[in-house]
Amino acid sequence: MSSSCFTDLAQQYIDGEWRPGTGSWDIIDFNPYDGEKLASIPIATVDEVDQAYRAAARVQRTWARTNPYDQRAVFERMLRLVEEREAEITEVITAELGGTRLKAAFEIGLAKEFLRDAAQLTLRAEGRILPSPVAGKENRLYRVPVGVVGVISPFNFPFLLSIKPVAAALALGNGVVLKPHQDTPVTGGTLIAKLFEDAGLPPGLLNVVLTDIAEIGDAFIEHPVPKVVSFTGSDKVGRHIATVCAAQLKRTVLELGGNSALVVLDDADLDYAVDAAVFSRYADQGQVCMAANRVLVDRAVAPEFTAKFVAKVRTLKTGDPRDPQTVIGPVINSLQANAISATVEQAEAEGATVLVRGKTTDNLVGPSVLTDVPADSSLLRKEIFGPVALLVPFDGEEEAVRLVNDSPYGLSGAVHTADVERGVAFAKRIETGMFHVNDGTIHDEPLVPFGGEKNSGIGRLGGESTLDAFTTLKWISVQHGRSAFPF
């Protein structure tokens, strides 16, 4: 990937203009694999956040009146641009995230699906006519844009998890201000702005501010313009955003952390379950909110499953994400790498058995497999955002249900069994927003409601849930006769 790409996109995108921020310090964009400095980005200030929101609000009024078929054409062009530039986007993901080729293909593929869905969303803000008990009255229900949406995206799947809410909000007639994670300002922010600009989106409708709370505090979420804030990230930050927005009666869509479990029942296809579990734990170095932090295995099949799981994990290549054979590339930064190493050390100190110990070199963290983790260990109830699997045996379904639900999170999960209906019955007992039978834990599709329970978030995106998230309902009544008033 040429350094000029990062240099060109290392700017703020406000009101249709590319310009440097006016803050007193810079965000430094690094390649997490080799430490190469990709760009230095002057940070956006509170004033520039205000300019971005004001621009989005101004242009949104015209966009909301634009013919939806003309709106759809923008998303169709955006999709074609992503397809035409997929090789370049892959290079950006690899350089800025340390994402493997496989991870980049997975992320871009899903982003394209959500762009296809956004093109159709432009035509789906349908109204209704409802009956009235009042003679001569017609009740019209209009679905209208909320106005402006603030989007805060994470570092792990920044291209997808920026496009998903941004495209949907725009397609439903809103303006958007996007704040990507400071570790992925290009992939999650300005690259997307450039693609939309080239696709013909009206200037000022989408704005991208590259900044940090150390500079702007709560200005992004406290600003009076945005009516909805969409955030993907940690539950700690999510709680703060929910609190601030609730005080201002703003709506939030919060996709937060997870502690998902993949459950292997006694009648499961073990070879298939191993494949699903290894992918669910180690995809994108384990930096996935839906990742299978815990792999629960019926004690009757635990020895055989464990042997096969460990054998497969040992085949996973850790190294240069540019190598097509690499499965596990670098984690996003040294803070994450150190936290993962500390997790393994904590487990071992608590008495866990280390079946596979991943070597840590700079930001490269090899896969680890742990078992015999004490039942009272905090590791069983927290999100481990890295390539560490916890194997947990259980005795029968009742114990499995209890163990899965013994978590403050409830995002995703999976169960493997030869009996599909047994799996569905099991899934119904789990306190999660999503659960999968005979599959992995990592899934996202445009037409289904994506989101979690408990500490894993509030709200959903996908299908009808997206309409509810980024539009509001307006009742307009028409009296065709004459109402009778009491005075």
Give a short summary of the structure.
This protein is an alpha/beta fold and about 475 residues long. The chain has 16 helices and 24 strands.
Q: What do these coordinates show?
A:
The chain has 487 residues and is of the alpha/beta class. Helix content is 39%, strand content 21%. The chain contains 16 helices and 24 strands. The strands form 7 sheets. Strands 14-17-18-13-12-20-21 form a 7-stranded mixed sheet, with helices on both faces. Helix 3 runs antiparallel to helix 5 and helix 3 (68-84) packs across helix 7. The protein is globular. The mean pLDDT is 97.
Which structural traits does this protein have?
487 residues; alpha/beta; 7-stranded mixed sheet; 16 helices; 24 strands
Q: How are the SSEs placed, and which strands pair?
A:
Blueprint: H1 3-9, E1 12-14, E2 17-19, E3 26-30, E4 37-42, H2 46-63, H3 68-84, H4 86-97, H5 101-121, E5 128-130, E6 137-145, E7 148-152, H6 158-171, E8 175-179, H7 186-199, E9 206-208, H8 213-216, H9 219-222, E10 228-232, H10 235-247, E11 251-255, E12 260-264, H11 270-282, E13 292-298, H12 302-313, H13 334-349, E14 353-356, E15 360-361, E16 364-365, E17 368-371, E18 388-394, H14 396-405, E19 409-410, E20 413-416, H15 420-428, E21 436-437, E22 453-454, E23 457-458, H16 464-470, E24 471-479
Helix pairs in contact: 3-5, 3-7, 4-5, 5-6, 6-7, 11-12
